[in-house]
Amino acid sequence: MSETKLSESSEVVIRTNKLTKEFIRDEFHVIALKDVNIEIHRGEFVALMGPSGSGKSTLLHLIAAMDKSTGGEIEVLGENLNRLSDTQIAHWRNVHVGFVFQQFNLIPVLTALENVELPLKLTNLKKAERLEHATTALKLVGLGDRLGHFPRQLSGGQEQRVAIARAIVTDPQLILADEPTGNLDAQSADDVLTMLSRLNKEYSKTVVMVTHDPHAAKFATRVRHLEKGELLPEGVTTTA
Amino acid sequence: MFKNFPLIVKNCWRNRRRTTLTILSIGASLCLLGILMAVYQAFYLSDGAPEQALRLVTRNKVGLAATMPQAYEPKIKALPGVHEVMVANWYGGTYIDDKPEHQFARFATEADKLFTIRPEMKLSDEEKAAFLHDRRGCIIGKELADKLKLKDGDRMTLIGDIYPGNLDFTVRGVYDAPIDNGVFYFDKAYIEEGLPDRRKGNVGIFYVLANTADDVPRIEKAVDAMFANSPQETKTETESAFALSFAAFLGNVKGFLMVVSAAVTFTILLVSANTIAMSVRERIREIGVLKVLGFTNAMVLGIILGEAILISAAGGVIGVFLADLLAAGLRHGPDYMEQLHTLHITTPVAFLCVAVAAFIGLVSAYIPAFQASRIPILSALRNTD
Ligand SMILES: Nc1ncnc2c1ncn2[C@@H]1O[C@H](COP(=O)(O)OP(=O)(O)O)[C@@H](O)[C@H]1O
Ligand SMILES: [Mg+2]
Fold it and tell me: CB A12: neighbour CB atoms within 10 A?
């Protein structure tokens, strides 16, 4: 899991070229992303900031191949995402990407352990191995004593930590988080951010996190700003 | 796909009340379907008792009320493959009064042939001998004897209608038989002795016993062919088929069974489709989450269909149990529905029922499940119910 610092900084994990996303609904055309060029390297923790509606989530969705771009190119972990079939993308995401949502999005009828086990059902692991991996992931996020709890029996902070465990259980290279602290109190938010930071530092995960909270952005190793669908030059911040 | 079974089960149980109600309504419908299938099987597919397979019934082509000349008897008997022929006449009459418990089938037959034609009747040799020696004797089925509280030696009177005059009988035997266990038999010589000549020798039914089951189809054709174009043409059929045509006065049993079955099936289809559509709608967002985790459209489809199949099959299992209880009740049905007395939910019918239920679950859920599985991830995630 751990890599040398050298390879972390050299390998490009995400590369976009004039990446554009246009939403067309009836007469309305919304350009959510316009000619975005970004390179994110292995082992980086990048915060994407910008005002609401600036295209942060859209960019993250394209990186996760949850949506298709309408222009430009995007290459993630060496894959040209525009060329993969739906089934290939599903498999690719299962193996390489962990996604953390603002609303946690745990399955309510499943326990913490079962929620975390879910992505492993798509692997060849045996039941016992799956449970072992899931338990390890939950211990890692400090919830080793909550395995049998259902989401409704957990606090928001705990739910989000279960979601992080679910995102890392397949040991993906890339962790994507869309406003992961948006629904949390300050303390829980710090716990979650510390955890993402640890995953980045100790386990060399590449993390891309969308946030509009400057405090959250401090946990990142690099911050990039978006405004009206355009990526601002490195170091330039928005007013919002 | 079995890996997802726990998730499927938990999804089913998400809305317990709805799932329970769905399972119960499918169970109730399936119970009805099971009974209909069992009735259908009993009426149309079963071979009947082994003795029945060798017996044919010849009657006037015009209908059950019309008669045939006694002279047919030796002619039928002479046909190859025929072992024995017995005359049986429906004797109407009244026993005590018109109350339903006093209604039963009464046949005037040739007593000396009865035990050859119906070897499945169980009664002691003494009883048989007593019956054969008493022209005014009768034998009755055990079911009937129990109902009327009659035993050997008891006396009973039938009040005539089709045939004039009252007849006094002594019960000479109580037989047990798997079928026709409620019939009253007496010697037709008893009524004929009081009849005017023009009414003698009229036969309602000839029971024909074949040597082997292979002879049956040939005899069936040969008898009717022999009397074709005569003033009294005949209709010959196997005893089980005859029993059916007897029941058929209720209407087109077959068509009725089909129509009701179709209606029941359609009902389950709607119930199941509705449940799945509702449960899917509540879960669009979770479907999006599953896909983010790497589940493909096909897997999501499988999970939803699995849920529908599980619910319907559970309903099917409950339905089979209910049907089995109901069948036990129907076994005590009216005598003219002879087949009902052996009504059982057989293993094939039980399996068929559950399979039909599962299949209906699959079909009903397919469209909502397919649509849900195809919703793009982001639309699904945006969904708030
Ligand atoms: N499915 C969609 N249909 C139409 N417009 C959309 C859709 N998704 C996002 N948008 C628009 O794209 C722009 C960027 O959205 P988003 O990436 O969600 O912003 P952010 O995450 O920065 O708040 C917004 O103007 C939003 O209204
Ligand atoms: Mg957003």
Answer: 13
CB B227 within 8 A of CB B214: no
**B18 in reach of chain A (CB within 8 A):** no
User: What rounded mean pLDDT belongs to chain B?
Assistant: 87
Q: Is the ipTM of this complex over 0.90?
A: yes
Ligand 1 pocket test: pick from A23, A56, A179, A228 the residue with the most ligand atoms within 8 Å of its Cβ: A23
Per the CB < 8 A criterion, the answer to whether A226 and A35 are in contact is no
Query: Are the beta carbons of A16 and A36 closer than 8 angstroms?
Result: yes
Q: Answer yes or no: do B363 and B296 share one domain.
A: yes
Min distance B364 CA to chain A CA atoms (Å): 24
Give nearest CA residue, ligand 1 atom 25: A53
C-alpha to C-alpha distance for A72 and A56, rounded to whole angstroms: 17
Q: Rounded to an integer, what distance in angstroms lies between the CA atom of residue B169 and that of residue B185?
A: 11
Lowest mean pLDDT among A47-61, A98-112, A223-237, B244-258: B244-258
Residue B249 has pLDDT above 60, yes or no: no
Q: How many domains does chain B have?
A: 2
Q: Taking the CA atoms of chain B, what radius of gyration do you get in angstroms?
A: 29
Retrieve residue A166's tokens: 């679910």
Between CA A120 and CA A172 the distance in angstroms is: 12
Residue B36 shares a structural domain with residue B83: no
Do residues B292 and B361 both lie within one domain? yes
Tell me, what amino acid is at A178? Answer: D
Query: A109: helix, coil or strand?
Result: coil
Q: Please report whether residue B182 resides in a domain.
A: yes
- Written as one string, the DSSP assignment of A9-60 is HHSEEEEEEEEEEEEEETTEEEEEEEEE--EEETT-EEEEE-STTSSHHHHH
Q: Which domain holds residue B162?
A: 67-231
**What is the enclosing helix (H) or strand (E) of A73?**
strand A71-76
What per-residue confidence (pLDDT) applies to B342? 74
The whole-number pLDDT of residue B45 equals: 64
What count of Cα atoms within 13 Å lies in the side-chain half-sphere of residue B275? 36
User: In angstroms, what is the span from residue A60 Cα to ligand 2's centroid?
Assistant: 9
Nearest to B378 among A67, A91, A122 (CB): A67
pLDDT value, residue B59: 92
What's the whole-model pTM score? Answer: 0.72
pLDDT band at residue B47 using 50, 70 and 90 as cut-offs: low
Classify domain A12-231 at the CATH superfamily level: P-loop containing nucleotide triphosphate hydrolases (3.40.50.300)
Evaluate whether residue B54 is within a structural domain. Answer: no
A180-198 CB burial, b ≥16 within 10 A, e <16: bbbbbeeebbbbbbebbbe
* Inter-chain contacts counted by CB atoms under 8 A, chains A and B: 61
- Does residue B167 lie within any of the structural domains? yes
Question: Which of B231, B265, B291 represents a domain boundary (last residue)?
Answer: B231
Neighbouring C-beta atoms of residue A80, cutoff 10 Å: 10
**Residues paired with A28 in a beta bridge:** A25
The neighbouring-strand residues paired with A99 are A176
DSSP letter assigned to residue B122: B
